[in-house]
Amino acid sequence: MGRQTLMRPIQHGTLARNESLTAELAIVIPTFNERENIHILLEKLEAALRGLRWEAIFVDDDSTDGTVAELEEACRENPRLRCIRRLGRRGLSSAVVEGIQSTFAPYVAVMDADLQHDERLLAPMLEVLRRDEADLVVGSRYSEEGGFGEWDRQRQSISRFATRISRIILKDRMLSDPLSGFFMVKQEAFNSAVRDLSLQGYKILLDFVASSSAALRIRELPYQFGTRMHGESKLDTLAVVDYLLLLIDKLVGRWIPPRFILFVAVGLSGTGLHMIVLAEAFHLNVSFIVAQTLAVLTAITGNFFLNNWLTYFDRRIRGLFPMLFGLLTFYAVCLVGAVANVGIASFIFWQNYSWWLSGLCGILVGAVWNYAASSVITWRK
Ligand code: GDD
Ligand code: MN
């Protein structure tokens, strides 16, 4: 019976079908504008994985540099290769997850397309999983013999700092390089945590480990981070906000949307700005009502720019006129928020005469309204 099932693809299917059905190791490779790296990477993989039953799944987010044409040619020639083409979406973590979901290979590796991850580590990683010594093997730049290759000091220390704060969500799960994007995992182990993933941003490994049970057995193997020769890194300052959102989501995301927390943080900083302007204007001898109005306007304007930069970093409004329009809608939203704030607060005060409870409720309702309304009006997708 088992034999017959095994035989079927050989009789009816193509070689490609058979190979992908029986691959033991799937390598998921997210790509965005990596045209020149594809064929070099494939040569390296062929050499490093000789004799193994492997397949590679590229997940491309509509690259604009001809990567897809390159992938098409490669996939036509080589039945081990497949490509998922996602349209209208970006995101390293979600790309990786979709790649993993598209295969039933028992072992899955994730690696970058830009040759910065050492493909010679794949075979030893597979060996560790096959011998069932771990459920997850991570390529680490921190363990002895590992390293950052040619990264400058500044980038290294940023990475080290980011690694240190990841402890907040990792708790006591041991991992020296949770920000690594190079790892191999048992499909089964990955899938047991896949529904709890935050999928925010770039740090899929950290996301996965933070989302999985403490029983996950992890092994680290050292490697030297390579230098990018072709194309450019996609991680910019946005990656920092992205990372922050991942940490917040893993900490409190179950109860509060991470973006709302950023919005509130911006609001608090706006209160600071408000008080400074109020104090300055008041000392200039203008009337209180003028000073207060000036302070409110400055604070809301400041909040608009900060929210545009931080809270809605992925939907930033750009250009003079869109900015002006956005600012106007934000004023309107905040005006309604203020009215709701005062209305609710008065209502509650009228019920129980507690000034601080009424005040807090007003603020809460105002903040939730401002957040909800501005996210669908000012920063609509
Ligand atoms: N599909 C898809 N969508 N792929 C993407 C996207 C995206 O939005 N953004 C980046 N990629 C692909 C790139 O084409 C590359 O193959 C890989 O993901 C890593 O992107 P890089 O832009 O090269 O990132 P990096 O070198 O700065 O960061 C790497 O090092 C980090 C360690 O510090 C990545 O490996 C990270 O995962 C890793 O954490
Ligand atoms: Mn890279």
Secondary-structure blueprint:
Blueprint: H1 2-12, H2 15-22, E1 25-31, H3 35-48, E2 54-60, H4 67-77, E3 81-85, H5 92-101, E4 107-110, H6 122-130, E5 136-140, H7 153-165, H8 167-170, E6 183-186, H9 187-193, H10 204-211, E7 218-222, H11 238-252, H12 258-283, H13 288-311, H14 320-352, H15 355-376
Parallel strand pairs: 1-2, 1-4, 2-3, 5-7
Antiparallel strand pairs: 4-6, 5-6
Helix pairs in contact: 3-4, 11-12, 12-13, 13-14, 14-15
The chain binds guanosine-5'-diphosphate-alpha-D-mannose (GDD) and manganese (II) ion.
Task: Provide key terms for this protein.
single chain; 381 residues; alpha/beta; 7-stranded mixed beta sheet; binds guanosine-5'-diphosphate-alpha-D-mannose; binds manganese (II) ion
Overview of the molecule:
The structure is a single chain. This protein is an alpha/beta fold. It contains 15 helices and seven strands. The chain has helices at residues 2-12, 15-22, 35-48, 67-77, 92-101, 122-130, 153-165, 167-170, 187-193, 204-211, 238-252, 258-283, 288-311, 320-352, 355-376, and strands at 25-31, 54-60, 81-85, 107-110, 136-140, 183-186, 218-222. The chain has a seven-stranded mixed beta sheet with strand order 3-2-1-4-6-5-7. The structure holds guanosine-5'-diphosphate-alpha-D-mannose and manganese (II) ion. Manganese (II) ion binds at residues 112, 114, 116, 228, 233. Manganese (II) ion (MN) binds next to loops.
